What does this fold into?
Amino acid sequence: MPDIVRLHYDVDGDNFMAAGEASSTVKNVLKRLGIGEDMVRRAAICLYEGEINMVIHANGGTIDVSVSPQTIEMVLKDQGEGIPDIEQAMQEGFSTASDRVRDLGFGAGMGLPNMRRYADSLEVSSEPGQGTRVVMTLNIAPA
Amino acid sequence: MTVAELAARLDAKVLCGAETALERAVQGAYAGDLLSWVMGRARAGMVWVTIMSNMNVAAVALLADVSCVVLSENVAPDEALLARAVREGLVLLSAPLSTYDVCWRIREGLADAAVL
It folds into this structure.
């Protein structure tokens, strides 16, 4: 594979029916790059959770994925209202999603916990009113 | 037990699914309607049993790499879900049983397969 593969996606806000497009495209690209099935699955789950969060909470955002022979790095940025208490948001079951969103099966409060579970590293930074930045890394080969 | 054999055990309608997907082996099951729980807990090859019927079900099923989705209680998928499942070769089954009974029969099927 080439040294580093970079992918960029713009995610629409409030479009729950199209949500997951970026994740499934990235999944297919990773497969084509010959990355192992389990790693592809973990990366896709992490990205889908992040993508859904941007759709639900931040009116969309951007996704940048870079794949090197060693790592998959996924950076999600949005201009939403931010997360006032990140520690609280990391707790399983904590959610601020609306009833409408919950009726679609989202808003279980498992998004960030799933990202933490499946990424090798997860960094969340957020300023109220300034949006949120999430960086997830998966290690392909041991460092 | 393959997905096709499971469909017969559940008296389920096969709404769609690629032929190769119908021959895939069933490796356990996960039941639930909250998408993130399913994403976090279902493992590759499992059957996912749910009453959710919107298009996000396809996204989650494909990302989690389940062997098929069983819509219990005779739930019908909405048009967008069916269209996406057809496009991706995902197996969708609709069963007349409750989620509990679907899981019970999956368990029976897996036990029988282990004995044979």
